[in-house]
Amino acid sequence: MAFETWHLLGEHWPIALSMALGSYFAGSTPMGGGTVGFPVLVFGFDYPTHVGRDFSLAVQSIGMTSASLLIWCRKQALARTFLKGSIIGVTLGLPIGLFAISPWVSEFAVKALFSVLWASFGIYHLRYGRELRQQTGFISHHQSTDLRVGILLGIIGGLTTVAFTGVGIDMLVYSTLILMYRANIAIAIPTSVVIMAYASVYGSVLQTLSGAWSPGVIEQWLTAAPVVALGAPLGVLVVSRLAPRTNIAIVSVLCLAQFAWFLLIERQYLSPLSVLLLIVLAATTWGLLIKLKDLSN
Question: What is the pLDDT of residue 15?
Answer without folding.
Answer: 63
